[in-house]
Design a protein that fits this description.
The protein is an all-alpha fold. 69% of the residues lie in helices and 1% in strands. The chain starts with a strand and ends with a helix.
Length: 274
């Protein structure tokens, strides 16, 4: 960056941001703002293709960057070290698209911090790998509910769109999963809502699952159910098929007997937006 005739090195944290592609929901919002109808499936495919092209275009420079950052330095919570970790993880995510996750598997085994461990696991899941690492992570952190929230969220966030709702259903319905705990509930449903192409899948599986669990939680915790229901907030921006499916679930929620005032108010407001 030129500044008064001098060159200032770009910080690792900023470089990490430069390697990060826009989120799929952000892209959908941008397309909607252009008076066009966003297609979650096409956005997902295009973003994945762009990430692969970027990994190839950066070539050996990306590998050299990762090696420079993989220096075995002692962990430090400083901003400088956090920036280096962020850049290292960003580079690893792109490299995994070229090697199928081999480097990420090694990085997971050698991780010296939670940030690096989660980053490597994310890179693996993104390329369809990481099942052994998921088991290892759960064995190590299974007693820490807050850490396991990451474990749950990662699996849903990186699930293929057609499988995202099924993954979320399996996790939230697993024996021992305390879905009545607001943090646990928000983690799973929030992760599904954040999987843009998964939540808005044309099958309607994402909409149905979220509606099912909102109705199940509402009698116990209407405030959390109302907050999580905002997953449906953007439904009017999509195509007729998705709008019909989302509207149907909102109407099903409103038709439920003994629905709380909190959830009713949110559902009526979102339904009215369409």
């Amino acid at each position: 960056i030129a500044l008064r005739g001098r060159t200032r090195p770009v910080s690792p944290a900023f470089r990490a941001l430069c390697l990060r592609l826009p989120g799929e929901d952000d892209l959908a919002q941008t397309i909607h703002a252009m008076d066009r109808i966003p297609d979650p499936a096409k956005i997902h495919a295009a973003r994945r293709e762009m990430a692969g092209a970027l990994a190839i275009r950066l070539g050996d420079g990306l590998s050299r960057l990762y090696k420079d950052l993989d220096d075995n330095a002692p962990f430090s919570p400083s901003a400088a070290q956090a920036g280096r970790r962020a850049l290292k993880i960003a580079a690893l995510g792109l490299l995994s698209r070229r090697d199928g996750g081999k480097l990420a598997a090694s990085a997971f085994a050698r991780a010296r911090s939670m940030t690096e461990e989660v980053g490597a696991l994310s890179a693996l899941l993104e390329v369809g790998q990481g099942q052994a690492e998921l088991v290892s992570f759960a064995a190590r952190w299974g007693r820490d509910a807050n850490v396991m929230d990451k474990w749950h969220a990662l699996q849903i966030a990186h699930a293929e769109p057609a499988e995202a709702a099924a993954v979320a259903a399996r996790l939230i319905g697993a024996p021992g999963f305390d879905w009545k705990n607001p943090n646990r509930f928000r983690t799973v449903i929030g992760a599904l809502a954040a999987n843009h192409a998964g939540f808005h899948h044309r099958s309607g599986s994402g909409y149905r699952l979220v509606a099912d669990w909102l109705l199940k939680l509402d009698p116990l915790n209407p405030q959390t159910a109302a907050r999580v229901s905002t997953a449906f907030e953007t439904w009017p921006r999509y195509d007729a098929t998705r709008r019909k499916l989302a509207r149907g679930e909102l109407e099903r929620i409103l038709a439920a007997p003994d629905l709380s005032g909190d959830l009713r108010e949110m559902a009526e407001r979102m339904l009215g937006a369409g």
